[in-house]
């Protein structure tokens, strides 16, 4: 889209408590969209980095100091008054207790039970992304065996796993249908989301929460399949761009590190991962050779979380 006005760079903080509640504030009188609920933040000033701007805004508006913030999605949005580029950060640790220093209202909210309205229109995709957990598991019955896979899944669900992809390339027909059905039933008993690799019809038939498209499917589609959650595998800038264009809910990008399952693919490395997603408007999971302890680093690189096919099923 062509921008008639210059881009206004804005930082916005998704301040998340350990109980997953996040903070919304109401826009003060006198500003465009006064009374609308937003994430605390504001315009970057000349010479400031995004993080410096975030730090300043949170001190000015809420009286808190950031201790840990992760860069997250970016999003360009055109309002009648301006075109803004929003730099979202997830702030997970801070000092001080937030209070409205500019007489704005504050409210701690959850994605499942949002009780304030109206919200700034640019922020809806961000709320959607907040519903996605930071760990994305990928099933691996072909290596573990089907019964062992189900057993490991049960354990992982008990330990808090909330999101997984059924990806069983060596199974088809009734065998895949049976296993997928077993997995979905177990996951749904724990309110975990399940997407199925590639097969949109199977996902609908079994009542899964959506699909995970291969990069080849992603590149050949002209619109997003009509399912609740739709993700895709990406390996480069072109595929990321297509995922944004089609309005995917999330992507995985990799392989970040060399991996046993895809020996032919050259690993991106963390630097390239981070550079590729710097301006991405979607939540991006890092994938490829990762273990659970890589999560913090992936978040620092701008990732939404990590996807795992092996480490997630190993006993800890
Ligand atoms: N702070 C904030 N701004 C947002 C969000 N979403 C969103 O579209 N914006 C837009 O980004 C711009 C931020 O401008 P602002 O008016 O809050 O900036 P500011 O605090 O520096 O105020 P100022 O007008 O006094 O300079 C507005 O156009 C606002 O509509 C959000 O979640 N938080």
List the helices and strands and how they pair.
Elements: E1 7-15, E2 22-26, E3 37-38, E4 41-43, H1 50-62, E5 65-78, E6 83-95, E7 106-109, H2 124-130, E8 135-138, H3 141-144, H4 146-158, E9 163-166, H5 173-189, E10 193-197, H6 200-206, E11 210-213, H7 215-220, E12 229-234, H8 237-246, E13 250-253, H9 269-276, E14 284-287, H10 295-300, E15 305-308
Parallel strand pairs: 1-6, 8-9, 8-15, 9-10, 10-11, 11-12, 12-13, 13-14, 14-15
Antiparallel strand pairs: 1-4, 2-3, 2-7, 5-6
The structure holds 8-OXO-guanosine-5'-triphosphate.
InterPro entries: Aldolase_TIM, MutT-like, Nudix_hydrolase, NUDIX_hydrolase-like_dom_sf, NUDIX_hydrolase_CS, NUDIX_hydrolase_dom, ThiamineP_synth_sf, ThiamineP_synth_TenI
GO molecular function: 8-oxo-7,8-dihydrodeoxyguanosine triphosphate pyrophosphatase activity; 8-oxo-7,8-dihydroguanosine triphosphate pyrophosphatase activity; 8-oxo-dGDP phosphatase activity; 8-oxo-GDP phosphatase activity; metal ion binding
Cofactor: Mg(2+)
């Amino acid at each position: 889209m062509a921008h008639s006005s210059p881009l206004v760079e804005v930082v916005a903080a998704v301040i998340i408590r350990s109980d997953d509640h996040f903070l919304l504030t109401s826009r003060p009188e006198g500003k465009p969209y006064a009374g609308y609920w937003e994430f605390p933040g504001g315009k970057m000033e000349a010479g400031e980095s995004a993080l410096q701007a975030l730090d300043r805004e949170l001190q000015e508006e809420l009286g808190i100091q950031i201790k840990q913030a992760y860069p997250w999605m970016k999003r360009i949005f055109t309002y009648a008054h301006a075109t803004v580029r929003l730099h979202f950060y997830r702030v997970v640790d801070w000092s001080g207790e937030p209070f409205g220093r500019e007489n704005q209202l504050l409210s701690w909210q959850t994605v499942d039970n949002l009780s304030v309205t109206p919200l700034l229109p640019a922020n809806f995709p961000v709320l959607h992304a907040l519903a996605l957990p930071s760990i994305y598991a990928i099933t691996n019955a072909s290596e573990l065996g089907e019964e062992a896979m189900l057993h490991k899944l049960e354990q992982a669900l008990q330990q808090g796993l909330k999101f997984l992809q059924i990806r069983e390339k060596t199974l088809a027909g009734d065998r895949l249908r049976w296993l997928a059905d077993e997995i979905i039933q177990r996951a749904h008993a724990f309110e975990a989301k399940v997407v199925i690799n590639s097969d949109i019809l199977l996902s609908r038939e079994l009542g899964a929460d959506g699909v995970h498209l291969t990069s080849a499917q992603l590149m050949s589609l002209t619109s997003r399949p009509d399912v609740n959650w739709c993700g895709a595998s990406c390996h480069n800038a072109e595929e990321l761009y297509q995922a944004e264009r089609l309005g995917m809910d999330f992507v995985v990008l990799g392989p970040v590190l060399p991996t046993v399952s895809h020996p032919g693919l050259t690993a991106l490395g963390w630097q390239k991962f981070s550079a590729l997603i710097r301006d991405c408007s979607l939540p991006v999971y890092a994938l490829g050779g990762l273990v659970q302890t890589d999560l913090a680093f992936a978040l620092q690189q701008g990732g939404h979380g990590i996807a795992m096919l092996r480490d997630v099923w190993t006993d800890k």
